[in-house]
């Protein structure tokens, strides 16, 4: 049996633009990744695929100057969902440019999820001790920034242990979530 070691959805694909920076000779992977038919992409300005912003502006400048670029992350919307592509490209002798693209949306989602897990409590959704200390250092200027005025408000749930002991951890968890909702 044939065993595939690469996920085709994560495979790189090739793109090509002509001297006018319009998509040219569209391959099936580019069309599939963009959620559009190859015939509608042919002749479309490459930058029109992407959402406006700094990344698109950098792409447009690189294409206009025929300057090589590597690992430029651009954003686009496909079927109402924001996707993230990493592009690299270089000038070609025909006056256009060619390059490689990869959809890195899953990677971005995983990074966001990991950052959230590192900074927020999974039960309550409130900032955890690490994020609290980071924000406190920033607010007091301990991180090298300008110091600001800070007020701390402490809350203690009296006899919370007895809630867990008498009512169980499910009730205790629900109480913590309700208090967190109230605080937010």
List the secondary-structure elements in sequence, H or E.
EHHHEEEHHHH
Radius of gyration: 25 Å
Low-confidence stretches: 1-8
Strand order of the largest sheet: 1-4-3-2
Principal-axis shape? elongated
Which structural class do the helices and strands define?
Answer: alpha+beta
**Helix segment tally:** 7
Helix content: 25-40%
In angstroms, what separates the terminal alpha carbons? 55 Å
Question: Strand tally, please?
Answer: 4
Give a short account of the largest sheet.
Answer: 4 strands, antiparallel
Mean of residue pLDDT? 90
Assess the beta-strand content as a share of residues.
15-25%
Structure notes:
It contains 7 helices and 4 strands. It is 40% helix and 18% strand. α6 crosses α7 (169-183). Strands 1-4-3-2 form a 4-stranded antiparallel β-sheet, sandwiched between helices. A hairpin with a 5-residue loop joins β3 (81-91) and β4 (97-103). It has helices spanning 28-34, 38-41, 54-65, 105-119, 129-140, 160-167, 169-183; strands at residues 13-17, 69-78, 81-91, 97-103.
């Amino acid at each position: 049996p044939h065993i595939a070691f690469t996920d085709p959805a994560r495979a790189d694909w090739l793109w090509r633009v002509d001297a006018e920076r319009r998509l040219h000779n569209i391959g099936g992977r580019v069309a599939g990744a963009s959620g559009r038919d190859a015939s509608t992409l042919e002749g479309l300005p490459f930058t029109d695929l992407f959402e406006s912003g700094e990344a698109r502006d950098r792409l447009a400048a690189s294409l206009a100057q025929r300057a090589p670029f590597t690992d430029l992350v651009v954003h686009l919307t496909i079927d109402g969902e924001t996707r993230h592509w990493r592009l690299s490209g270089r000038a070609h002798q025909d006056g256009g440019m060619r390059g490689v693209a990869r959809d890195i949306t899953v990677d971005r989602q995983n990074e966001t999820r990991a950052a959230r897990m590192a900074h927020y409590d999974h039960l309550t959704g409130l900032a955890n001790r690490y994020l609290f200390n980071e924000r406190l250092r920033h607010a007091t200027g301990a991180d090298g920034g300008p110091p600001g005025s800070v007020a701390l408000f402490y809350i203690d749930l009296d006899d919370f242990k007895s809630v867990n002991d008498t009512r169980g951890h499910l009730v205790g968890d629900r109480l913590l979530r309700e208090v967190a909702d109230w605080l937010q």
